[in-house]
Structure formats: C-alpha cells, structure tokens
Design brief:
Distance between the termini: 46 Å
Number of strands: 14
CATH architecture of the largest domain: 3-Layer(aba) Sandwich
Radius of gyration: 19 Å
Strand content: 15-25%
Order of helices and strands: EHEHEEEHEHEHEEEEHEHHEE
Number of helices: 8
Largest sheet: 5 strands, parallel
CATH superfamily of the largest domain: Response regulator
CATH topology of the largest domain: Rossmann fold
Shape: elongated
C-alpha cells in the first residue's frame, strides 16, 4: 500500500513516516505543487493532506482532485477543531479528518477503515439482489437496468443494505458504512435517509422493500 503524505511540518512528516513505514510505502511532499507532481506520476491508495500548506490550502486541493475525477481516499489533517472547518474538509471531498495532535494508533485505524471502503467500492463484479444491481466502480445502483437517482449517502446506505440483504443490519453498521468515524449521526438522520430510499424504490417499481425492526435495525427483502 502506498500513501502520499502532504505536510510541511518536516518533523511530523518524518515521525509519521518512520512509524508507518512497516505497513506502507510513504511519499512525503511539503507543498501542493510537489503533491500535484507526485499524484500525476504515481498511484496512491490514500492521500493524507494537511489543510494549511505554504502554497495553498488542502481544502482547495481536495476539491481540485475531485473535479479531476481522482477518487483516491483523502484523510484531512487540521490543527483547528472547530466544526465549520471539519464540515468544509468533508464537503471538499475528503473522506475523513483528524484534529492535531492525534495518536499514531488512531491514524492507523483510520487508514485501515479508508482502505476497507476503497477495496469494497472497487470490486469489479456487480453485486445484485432481486431487481437491484450495484456497480461500485460507477457508484450507482440499477433497478431493472435503470439507474436510481440516489444522493451519495443514500447510495452508500442502500449498497450496505444490499450487501446484507435478508439479514438484519443495525443502525451502527449503517453509520460505519456511510459516515466517517467522528460523525455524530442521530437515529432520526438514519430514518430520514431510509425513508428517502424507500420512496425511490417505490417510484422505480422495485420488488425490494426495507423492513424496520424497531429499536434494532433494518432488513432489505423482496416484497410479497
């Protein structure tokens, strides 16, 4: 596994590189300019990106990468723990964020989580249940060969439900599928997304329904 670490604090970059070198190959860049060159020349599994850099900010760089259709998972680092900056980081296209200072063990855990998500989404074999088919590389779900109009979170939740079709899946499991580790997600938020997905399935005349197990979770199943 190869990581690109974009950080202008040389001491921090050297420390983390040393502590992670047994698990990963790590390239370190101290600026956005050098990171752009590295990203063009190499393929990375995860990008660790500091928000404050000498020639720009990580949020703008993350947006640029996403506009260029670069889907490499991004873990954003910030010294500012304020909510608005965390929201800006995630809205820019980052998949997760960490507030400095942080423990290396937590960083390792977050990297493992990002890599698991990436491996799952990059599966080349479409997964199917009843009249629904997931195309992970395209990030869409078809119902009878027609794409469903799903927003990102709804796609991720329905994908998770299909993966666990006809089995109980808890709200905690759904949160792990669709939100980062720091997110505070209410039961009402999950219920709202499930309600939206149900409406989309009904409009698409799908034979699939989502059954609520009150206080426990949900089950995706064929109706009738």
């Amino acid at each position: 596994m190869r990581l690109l670490f974009v950080e202008d604090d040389q001491r921090l970059a050297q420390t983390l590189s040393h502590q992670l070198k047994k698990q990963y190959v790590i390239d370190v860049c101290g600026s956005i300019a050098t990171a752009e060159l590295a990203a063009e020349a190499n393929t990375y599994d995860v990008l660790i990106l500091d928000i404050s850099l000498p020639d720009g900010d990580g949020i703008s760089f993350a947006k640029e990468l996403r506009l260029r259709a670069i889907k490499t998972p991004i873990l954003m680092l910030t010294a500012n723990g304020e909510v608005f900056q965390k929201i800006s980081a995630l809205d820019s296209g980052a998949d997760d964020y960490m507030t400095k200072p942080f423990s290396v063990d937590e960083l390792r855990a977050r990297l493992r989580a990002l890599l698991r998500r990436k491996e799952h989404r990059q599966s080349e074999t479409p997964q199917a249940f009843a009249d629904l088919t997931i195309h992970p590389t395209q990030m869409n779900i078809l119902c009878n060969n027609s794409p469903l109009p799903l927003q990102k979170k709804d796609y991720m939740l329905l994908e998770c439900l299909i993966d666990h079709a006809e089995r109980l899946i808890s709200k905690t499991q759904l949160i792990e599928c669709a939100w980062d580790m720091n997110a505070e997600v209410s039961d009402n938020a999950i219920d709202t997304h499930i309600k939206t997905i149900r409406k989309i399935l009904v409009r698409a005349k799908s034979c699939v329904t989502i059954e609520t197990k009150k206080g426990v979770g949900f089950v995706l199943k064929k109706s009738g």
